[in-house]
Amino acid sequence: MLTQLDIQNYILIDELQINLSSQLTVITGETGAGKSIIMGALGLILGDRADSSVCRNPEKKCVIEGTFTLPNKNNYTAFFEANDLDLADELIIRREINAQGKSRAFINDTPINLTELRQLTSQLVDLHQQFDTLTLGEMEFQRTVLDALANVHKDLETYQSSFFQWKADTKHLIELIEQKENFDQTVAYKSHLLEELTALDLQENELEQLELDLKFMEHAAEIKAQLAQSIHALDESDQPILQQIKQIAHNLESIAKYQNDFDPLLERLKAAQIELADIASELSTWQDKIDFDAAKIITIQERLSQGYHLQKKHKVQSTAALLEIQQTLSKDLEEVLHIDEAIETYTKKVATAEKALTELATHLSDKRNKQAAPFAKQVNHLLHQVGMPNAQLKVQLDKVPFNQFGIDKIDFLFDANNTDKFEPIKKVASGGELSRLMLCIKSLVGKSIDLPTMIFDEIDSGISGEPAKQVGLLLQELGQARQVLCITHQPQIAAKGQAHLYVYKAQEGNTTHTHVRTLAADERVIHIARMIGGDPPTKAAMEHAQELLS
Fold this sequence. Notes:
Blueprint: E1 2-10, E2 13-19, E3 24-29, H1 35-45, E4 62-69, H2 77-82, E5 90-97, E6 103-107, E7 110-112, H3 114-121, E8 125-128, H4 139-150, H5 153-200, H6 206-218, H7 220-236, H8 241-256, H9 263-289, H10 294-314, H11 319-385, E9 392-403, E10 406-415, E11 423-424, H12 425-428, H13 431-445, E12 453-457, H14 465-481, E13 484-487, H15 491-494, E14 499-508, E15 511-518, H16 521-533, H17 539-549
Parallel strand pairs: 3-13, 3-14, 8-12, 12-13
Antiparallel strand pairs: 1-2, 1-4, 4-5, 5-6, 6-7, 9-10, 10-11, 14-15
Helix pairs in contact: 4-11, 4-13, 5-11, 6-10, 7-9, 8-9, 10-11, 11-13, 13-14, 16-17
């Protein structure tokens, strides 16, 4: 609920504070007094775009601030958490515009962009102006209205849960069928590729190891010669290294008895002797087993050739990559074996889900159909009250394929002149007719769902007398359940407000200023009498005003 609107430096307003009733507040004033200026200021905190021309004094910024109370905070939790904002019982929305047209918006002093601002304020304020009645012709609005009156919220939730699951299962089934078609086209080729890789029976890092083995075997003679030379130097030459080290160790033994510091050196020398002897022995072992085996070299070359061929074919460069491809092909072909089973399973699953979905959609449709005629009857009764005795609304439901909201295409059809020729609302209804039709619908829907603060801007256009009175009664009744603001020129409507704001201009020096004040009870009588009979009001106008207010 909007409890207070503060306006600074906006068009004809220097500074203005408006406190608002929790029920029906009527706003009146002469044409051009500034009622539309107030609506424009309100539009800014709801997210409308602004320019520098709104600043009355270009040396100062324009500031519009609205204070809202949130009795049902849980309705807004998701928005505040998504935008990392603190949620409190009181919400202050501020909009600032400077002389260059730069605009900033704040929620409880935290900056926010216009998209996020509009997202929030659409849940707080329902601003009804003549151009807004175009939503009457939109299917989404019409479905929302009928669903609210039919009380199908829980039914719709249950249906949508099943619908999205059915849609996901159907999508998966289609993907499986497409996958099978693709498999059917490639299974022979993939089988051939897998057979090639399986036949080669590669082991981990085999090709890389074979490359090393081949190089070793191809250089066997050179390697054996080098080993022989090394063994000869260690143990077989005229002065072998091992024999020399043995002699050095003997020399150290003869002097170690004179100096203990030589003992560690002697130990290290003996360890080196043992290690070199071991190396000589291993080199001899290698020398004995190295042999040039032409047949084995040819075998390795052939296997490497097969491996290189498959690497080139699959555009990879390692044994690991070939093994990975082999594993993938095996998995793909294994899936082919199971895909028919999966298709059969999902076909049954989708059929079962579709049957259940049909039952839920039919139940939803039955509730809507049951509500359609009573709703149209109620609207038509209200249309008669608000000065449209020949106008009729009809709700038409046509069956369509499953969608997010069921199997119904909902159309509000309208006949303004009792011709029994019903057409879509947006084709045949005038602006004034749309305004009153929207009021009638909102007065019914407002009892079924928690609409935000509702604002009606000159909804009384083109009516007077008894129809205007009936519009006032509808607004008054609507105001019993929620906050309603209404700008009006009709005394019959102005008299129904719980609070009455009067907008007027005043000349102050060389400038004109717009002001707003709340009228006291006696002031309301005089003001409404002026709306009836002009200024000064006649005795009859005063009596009529008192009668309306009573």
